[in-house]
Amino acid sequence: MPFDESHVDDDVLALLALGEPAGSTSDLAHIEECERCTDELDSLRDVVGLARVGAAEGPLVAPAPQVWDRIADELGLESATRAPATVVPLDSRRRRPSAWGWIAGAAAAGLVVGGGGAWWVANRADPVTVQATAVLEPLPGWDASGSAVVETRSDGSRVLVVDLSKDTPSDDAFREVWLLKPDVSGLVSLGTLEGTSGRFDLPAGLDLSQFSVVDVSEEQFDGDPAHSGDSIVRGPLEA
Amino acid sequence: MTMLLTREEPSVSAPGTGSADSARPGHRLDPDGEGVEELGAAFARGDETAIAEAYRRWSALVHTVALRSLGSVTDAEDVTQQVFVEAWRSRQRFDPDKSRLPAWLLGITRHVVADTHEKRARDRRLRDKTVASTSDRPVPSVDARVVDRVLVADELDKLGDPQRTILRLAFFDDLTHDQIANRLDLPLGTVKSHVRRSLARLRTRWEVDGAVR
User: Fold this and answer.
1) At what angle do helices A10-17 and A25-33 cross, to 10 degrees?
2) Beta bridge partners of A175
3) What percentage of chain A's residues is helix, strand, coil (to nearest 5)?
4) Which chain B residue's Cα is nearest to A93?
5) What ipTM is given for this predicted complex?
6) Which of A10, A16, A40, A67 to mutate to test the interface with B (most CBs of B within 10 A)?
7) Nearest alpha carbon to residue A50 among B138, B70, B68
8) A141 and A237 in contact (C-beta within 8 Å)?
9) How close, in Å, is residue A103 to chain B by CA atoms?
10) What is the pLDDT of residues A90-127, one digit of tens each?
11) A-B interface: how many C-beta pairs under 8 angstroms?
12) What 3-state DSSP class applies to B183?
């Protein structure tokens, strides 16, 4: 408990759980005596152990696509229900093969211009087309820049891939990605951005010719879902 | 700043998308995605789009637990199928007010994995009775902590940077927090608070989704 003087600081417990020689002699003596601190340390050590072993085992593995078909067959699900689960594996949403970095990099360098012609990545199981790109420029007071790419999968679903040149770490704020109308008369939230890059599924009915500007804002934890008005970068999507 | 807030409903996750107010904090804080409670309620009601969405979100989790437990893709796929089929058929027993859908799915996964291990042991005994025992390999035991490891590792994977990098340097490179601060050119206090909060986040995910034993 950070505000409880009588217990050992949570920062110290976390470092001890990692195996660091942290804490004063009196901290260590306190832990010996204190059930709460001992339990907390044990629990954190457990998490560290699970993470060390678990992460070494590798990322999540999505099941093969036919598994869903078998489930839908066995349960006799309506065919309408079946399309959504032509699955985006949880894993691949986070961790992309290196091809993605390359596309994003190339887009940032202005090398990829769709111009109405489909631009396929052939060496992937689920080929995608780069539909539009945006160069993200910093707004006053910020020095990050970046790029955004709209890619379309073979099933027609679209993803906005955002890459920033640098993180803007803050303990009391987070970043949110939006699509705006050029006159800012309307906006759609796509989700929060952790780190410097993120992928955001675009709703099927979303008209990119209307919501054509990519915006990344800094938001406070104030419970207000509206745009804070504090944009970090912004840029128009161009085919 | 007041602006018109247009909230488009994602077509795929219709049952799981709550109102803007309730979805907002969940979006950032909930590792299982937006509207887990609404999705659970839709699932319990028998809304077929809910099982599709549940599969989209958690089939990789279920499949990975099965794969790590059983070591066979074929068995892991069978388990994944059984888990979602059983979950759907017994959805009346799922109480969305009492438990979260991913925790419930993982609970079923534990049972199905354990059953599969038992079946293997039975098959092995039958085979060993008829054939001279050629396989002295021990029967892999059910590892009760597979679910915990998969959840914690998945949450580690979901941490943004610099948190994920900080923890990975601590876990795998055995760097101390001041070495990490030097390496990443971050203030010491920032690294310490990232370590504390990130460990807490890993633990929360494990507690929230791995609760059913």
Assistant:
1) 90
2) A193, A218
3) 30, 25, 45
4) B158
5) 0.76
6) A67
7) B68
8) no
9) 21
10) 333 333 333 333 333 333 333 333 332 222 222 234 55
11) 204
12) helix
